[in-house]
Design brief:
The protein is of the alpha/beta class and about 210 residues long. The chain is built from five helices and seven strands; from the N terminus they run E-E-H-E-E-H-E-H-E-H-E-H. The protein has a seven-stranded mixed β-sheet with strand order 1-3-4-2-5-6-7, with helices on both faces. Strand 3 and strand 4 form a beta hairpin. The structure holds guanosine-5'-triphosphate and magnesium ion. Magnesium ion binds next to helix 1.
Amino acid sequence: MQIKSANFVKSSQKWQDCPEANLPEYAFIGRSNVGKSSLINAMMNKKDLAKTSQTPGKTQLINHFLVNEEWYLTDLPGYGYAKVSKVQRKDFEKLITNYILNRKNLVNLFVLIDIRHTPQKIDIEFIEWCGEHGIPFSIIFTKADKLKPNAAIKNVEHYKNELLKTWDGLPEIYVTSAEKKEGTEEILDFITITNDFLKQNNVQFNE
Ligand code: GTP
Ligand code: MG
């Protein structure tokens, strides 16, 4: 996909404040610091479209970006951020789950996972939660440049096996590096195909 335009639209504190749900929307979710904002910038070929930080917990609001005037890319706050109070963490979780359950134009959720780690309980639980609620999702492994190719492959295989313990099939899986701009085209191809399908079938989101 050629990115002709990518513009920040707004930051919202809750799903009710998000831009009108009239275009297909794709959202990035994952633990704090996993690389959501960096990957959005890599996909959009813009350095500072989404704010990134070495300190976890940078993205605390729902950020909407409008791409090619056709679809929304959404940067969600990271879950599992340890350095906030329990109450604050619950508030974040609520903001995220409410958004996912109520956003009518959300076509696909991309769950980002740091490729360096063994499967973490919080991610597996979140993926289970998506399954229970019938949320369509794909998995994106991030920071692939931080591992040697063989180690990356091994970790992805390990993750797949972990998922297959509870799932009959596997979701779409992407291996990416924002640093090296790897894997971004594949994600954009998926979005192109999905948008075309929605168009051909005249899918309208507004009730
Ligand atoms: P929150 O907004 O806090 O939830 O974090 P986030 O998931 O948006 O992470 P962000 O994109 O801000 O990146 C976190 C840190 O990881 C930054 O220091 C990035 O430079 C680094 N990082 C992100 N993606 C990559 C990558 O593909 N390779 C490498 N080497 N570093 C990365
Ligand atoms: Mg972020």
